[in-house]
Structures are given as C-alpha cells and as structure tokens.
Amino acid sequence: MKIDDVRGMTPDQLAESLLNLKKEQFNLRFQAATGQVEKTHRSNEVRKDIARIKTILRAKQAAA
C-alpha cells in the first residue's frame, strides 16, 4: 500500500482498512506459529501498512 493511496482515503475507509489489516496480521501470526506461512515478508508489510494508516488517520483527526 502506497502512502498516496492512504492519503486519498476517507477516515471511514481508513478505519475499515485498518481492521482488515489487523485481521490479516492475526492470521499471519497463527500461520507463523504453526509453520504454515508461505510469504514470510507479508507480516512485515502488514505491520508497516498498519503504521501508515494509523499515522494518516491521526493526522486527519488532528486537522479536523
């Protein structure tokens, strides 16, 4: 997910995207614990995407 894509989203879209990413992160953690994870780099990508969304969401809330 690119930062420009995140900036173009509304706060509702950001919240929904954040929820989906947290679910994916939860599933990836279980897959890693059981040794079934195929894309090991995906957990790092998800973590960084969550941070991007939280940063932009906080900035939009502060501006409002």
TrEMBL record:
Gene3D superfamilies (alphabetical): 1.10.287.310
Gene Ontology biological process: translation
Pfam families per the UniProt record, alphabetical: Ribosomal_L29
Keywords assigned by UniProt, alphabetized: Ribonucleoprotein, Ribosomal protein
Family matches, as InterPro entries: Ribosomal_protein_uL29, Ribosomal_uL29, Ribosomal_uL29_sf
MF terms (GO), sorted A to Z: structural constituent of ribosome
Annotated GO CC locations: cytosolic large ribosomal subunit
Protein family per UniProt: Belongs to the universal ribosomal protein uL29 family.
HAMAP family: Ribosomal_uL29
Annotated protein name in UniProt: Large ribosomal subunit protein uL29
Organism name: Phenylobacterium glaciei
Gene field: rpmC
